[in-house]
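Handoff note, outgoing to incoming analyst
You'll be picking up this chain. Sequence as last confirmed:
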Amino acid sequence: MKINTLVIKQAGAFFLTILILTCMHSEKIFSQDRRQNPPTDRRPPQQQPSVRPSPNHHQTPVQRPPAQRPPQQRPPVQQPPQNRPTQNRPPQQRRTQQRPPQQRPPQNRPPANRPPNHHQRPPVNHRPPGWGNNRPAYTRPPHIFRGRRYYSYHHYYYHPYRPFVFGPMWHPIGFFTRTLAAAEFIITFNSIQYHCADGVYYVPDNGGYQVVAPPLGAIISGLPNGYATINVGGIDYFYYGGTFYIATPDGYQIVQAPPGAIVYNLPDGCQQIQAGNNITYLMYNNAYFQPIEYNGQNAYEVVEIE
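Most recent structure output, in case you need it:
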């Protein structure tokens, strides 16, 4: 029994050894065959998702061959002949109408009174009408305001208006008094009686006397004390209290303020006239005075207005 068991073990070990060697030999052969013929990976092809063309995608049009259709022959339509009579129209000639010339009667139109154009350039070396050659012409352009021209020899120089008192017995226009101390003389001009005292002119009013503007054109026998002599255009003028006089054979005549005259004092009662931006004239007895600077002093020049 012991011998059989040993034989069986040896036989089993022999067969196990042969089996192991066989497996190793098979693995060696399989590996060589894999090297010579590598296996290919057979995978099913992947389907790519279909891409839809965008509406803005321009697709190339498919050119299809033109379809050849058999020509269709239609029978001609026969219309009945129309027998219209021929019209013999005369040639048209243009009518030329020759109108006789119209003779209009002459129209006598009155001359148009057009207003003066104040926007024209003022003349150079302007001399107002009535001036003689002894009066110097204006060389400065005038100040224009509301269609009126204000001529002066000197440029405008503003300084405050300060009324000047010409004497203890002098009073401005509009002053009223019950009695007069003494009158130098009494004149009658244009049916009005004037009492003159110290260059002031009074008229009777409401039981008293009221100061009025000197009457232009009246002649007095003497000048008030303190007058000033001013030469304008070769003529001597006498100035006192805002009034100008000239010498005549019968005395001294009250005259309008001559344009171009320069005075240093104006009386109380002057009216300030605005004539544009930063331009103020002083009016006294219908005469316009422009503030100026003359010989380093504040003065006034009588302006010419047109």
